[in-house]
Amino acid sequence: MVTTRTQNGVVPKPTAKALTADEAYATASDEDDDGDFKVSKKRKVSSSKRQKASGNAAASSSKTKAAAKPRRRGKDLSLLPTMPLDILYEILCQLTPKDLLNLSRTNKLFRSTMFGNQMLTVWRAARDAFDAPEPPDGWTEQKWAGLLFETTCQSCGKRGVVNVDWLLLRRACGTCKRAHLIYGPRIKSRFPGYDPEMLEYVPHTHTSAWTKGWWSNRTNSKFYWDDDIEEVADVYNYGYDEDWIDDRKELIAERAEMVKVYQDWLEQMDQFKGNATAENREKRLEAVKARFREEGYKDRDLDKAISVYSSGIFAGTPHVTNAVWSRIRPKLEPEVQRTRNERIMADLKPSVDKRMAILAGLYDAYLDKLRPSESCYCPPVDFLRVNPDVIKVVEADKDIDITEKDFQPVVEKFGEYVSEYQDDTEKELLKLMPAGSEGVEDPWQLARVVFLRDRRARPELYWYTSNSMEPEDSFLIGRDMVCTHTWERRRKMELRPGVFVDVPSKYELNSDGCRACGSIIIIAGLPQETATIPEMDAKDARFVCKLCVSMNGYNVFTWRAAAQHVWLDGNPNHSMRLATEEEEKMSKENELALREGAKAWSCNHCRAFLEPSASQTKPVVLEHLKSEHGITADDAKLDEDYFVNQRCRHAYEASYLIPEPDAERFKCLCYSCSRYPPGTLHSKETLSLHCVNRYPFKRFEDMVSGIDYEIIPRPSVDEKVVEASSSSGESTES
């Protein structure tokens, strides 16, 4: 029992006799810093160990006396029941009902103390602090507190049960509801010997474990708890009086009336908890900000980076201890750093742009010293933005005046930086090589390898295909085309949290292009897996698409142009063939003039025609050499004075059109062709493909002239007609 003060104010000392086995705890010490209560029972020592210890103690007593220190004892609640009652009351009155319940479950002594009649005022004070309704008749304060303030199933002990059935005054989980609730009409099958009339005196609810949504508002269904049925049956079957009946009816009616009161109080508690939680979050947020301020962060960055909904702040106590801070700091600090870096870079951006313009001028001066055939392999100046030496100069304080002199250490290493970038790029591309290229000495020489620019640098969504990009950006074969390729689009690279810079976009493997090249290699008669670019160039075969026949004739392709043609149209029905000797001879005889007229030539003495958009025809470049550099056309040498710009290889590989003046053209008369432009014409091959795509059951041989199609005579020279290409739904003019 709890001791009270005596008349003289002296508290009697507790005797050892008053302690039982359950009360045998270690003595308390208030020197422990963690504040946790530790309960430890005394351990019995065996007689043999006691004898051994006494023998050793005699020998070492002289040594240990001088070094002996007072033993630190853990804190516990063993002395709490021995405190004066009025002081104990003052302590217990500060606790919540849930804390009182936990304290009563510590041991038997605390249970008998907390459940004693002298503690009723403590329980009532704790309940009144939350403005909770009074317990119903027959309910103790302790039992009522357990129902209101705990979230444990009263049947199985499962935690986290939020809802209370106020008609049954039970907190039960879904599993227990399914096991114990009985639907009214099924009482007879569950309790065959019970009188159904006694259900009038059993509390019932209108919801079961399966009741959800608008069904929860129905009141015509009645569900009974099996224990309540048995409790009433024990009285009903063995005799009862009118007073008992009146009491049961009054109990059920009172519960139905109090449901609204209980629900209103619960809503009030939820609102109170919400307000308290919001207040705790604000206090926790302010405590976290104070910690960040100690680290040197500014309020403008903290206000933008973190809020009460941030991870680590949304839940927790208002007090941020060292342990809590060490746990949540790694979660919050990256976003704070990101916000700070974004602000700093936004203020510094005008200065950075100005300094990068200075660097670009110095880089252009470096490229001017190189021959254009060499400088075209150099990356754009953006690749220097992530260089540590460049960052020190470019991101210096905005009040510092940066000039060309400050970039001089960087200028001296331009050649080194370019070489490193080229080596890194080649290493990354080697990782992208397709399967089967591991054993090849130089995978760059494989004719079936095709690259394209990284599509992630595009601002559009990702539902496009690879051949939706421009061919000059998407069909790159060999080291020369890849390493000289330039692209105006840049990718964003995160230099540090919150700081993104524009750098040259990367490459990726064009799988569809690789398959297209593989099919052309097979048609050329070389092994698909090992055929190299020099081997395909040495064979110098020509190819014809059997389905792409225009009104004026058909095209003859080089192997690069043929592979690109198959890939670009994306038509699996393409049928390439090798050109005949006559077609190949005619194509090669005319290709020289076509290639000289293509805008794919550049001067090797200046950078006037180096950019793809500035490249010119061979006659223009030769005239430029004569007028600007004093080199005549007879003296000009290929690859020394002028060269084929690999950036314009697609224009250089133009196909040659072989005329076919006597070819027949057809106009489809089917109903579906009404959505095509008027006058769309087909060759025999394209009309066959058109019929197969639209009418799989109808072959071209089954079509009748004048009904399914119409033969169109060849138009005059000045007349334009719309022709159908091999791809369904496309058309071209001739």
Automatic annotation (TrEMBL):
It comes from the Eukaryota. PROSITE patterns: FBOX (PS50181). Residues 53-65 have a biased composition (Low complexity). Residues 77-126 form the F-box domain. Residues 22-75 are annotated as: Disordered. Residues 40-52 have a biased composition (Basic residues). This is F-box domain-containing protein. The lineage of its organism: Eukaryota, Fungi, Dikarya, Basidiomycota, Agaricomycotina.
